[in-house]
Write a structure and sequence with these properties.
Blueprint (H helix, E strand, L loop, with lengths): L14 H19 L8 H6 L1 H10 L1 H17 L9 H8 L1 H25 L2 H21 L1 H10 L5 H10 L4 H33 L3 H4 L3 H25 L1
Helix pairs in contact: 1-6, 3-4, 4-6, 5-6, 5-10, 6-7, 6-9, 6-10, 7-8, 7-9, 8-10, 10-12
């Protein structure tokens, strides 16, 4: 059963923290208006591949910090389609480090959304998301951890919507962090592997376009996508069993 966090124990946020959390939707709106998502594409990666990889090679730690902060900010601001950055993560840092960056940044960014929804923007967000959240309520009440893990493993619902459900249905932050991180690992790994495969394919394809299709990392990423497509069926069967 879900263990709701008693309202009596909800900590009061300082004015500075409240102001910071209130600023989140405003910054998100400005980011979308500026067209920040227009710069995140495979075409952009391909066009600037050499410069990006040279920068990562020369300033690896800085590159990891900047990319992690960028990914974290997009999740915290709930910018639509931000998960596509998982592919560039693998492209720039390889499948293992790329996936690790994504899992950390997405989980911590989601925690900011939970805090904002629970303590600052509760009334307005609850009213807008209420119908969708009610459909998830029974699952969270039955077993919050396993249900959240299943939702993260099978990302058929928007990350933001599931996170709002966590905020409004009394799921503990610890449950959110652990289930989200575990559920994101296979998804992030597949897309980061695909990103690494695209990077290798671009390099090989410059000399032999047909050889790019046979790159092991590229094949692994595509097979991973196929496995993810079957994952919802497997999770559904396991939950019924």
């Amino acid at each position: 059963m879900t263990e709701p966090e008693p309202s009596a124990t909800v900590p009061k946020l300082s004015r500075a923290r409240r102001a910071l959390l209130i600023a989140i939707p405003a910054i998100a709106a400005l980011s979308l208006a500026a067209g920040v998502t227009d710069y995140i594409s495979l075409d952009t990666l391909a066009a600037h591949r050499a410069e990006l990889l040279d920068f990562v090679a020369a300033h690896r730690t800085l590159a990891v910090i900047v990319f992690t902060a960028f990914y974290f900010a997009g999740v915290a601001l709930s910018i639509p389609g931000w998960g596509v950055l998982t592919i560039p993560a693998g492209f720039l840092f390889g499948p293992v480090l790329g996936a690790a960056i994504v899992v950390f940044a997405a989980t911590s960014g989601g925690a900011v959304v939970v805090l904002a929804a629970r303590y600052v923007l509760a009334d307005s967000l609850r009213a807008k998301a209420a119908p969708a959240i009610r459909k998830l309520e029974a699952g969270f009440q039955e077993n919050a951890f396993s249900y959240l893990l299943a939702l993260r493993l099978t990302p058929v619902l928007p990350f933001f919507l599931v996170t709002l459900a966590v905020a409004f249905l009394g799921v503990r932050m610890r449950t959110f962090l652990v289930a989200t991180a575990l559920g994101l690992i296979p998804v992030a790994s597949v897309y980061a592997t695909l990103g690494a495969g695209i990077g290798h394919a671009l390099e090989v394809g410059a000399h032999d376009p047909l050889a790019a299709a046979h790159e092991p990392t590229m094949i692994g990423g595509l097979l991973g996508l196929a496995a993810l497509a079957l994952l919802p069926v497997l999770v559904k069967r396991l939950r019924r069993g």
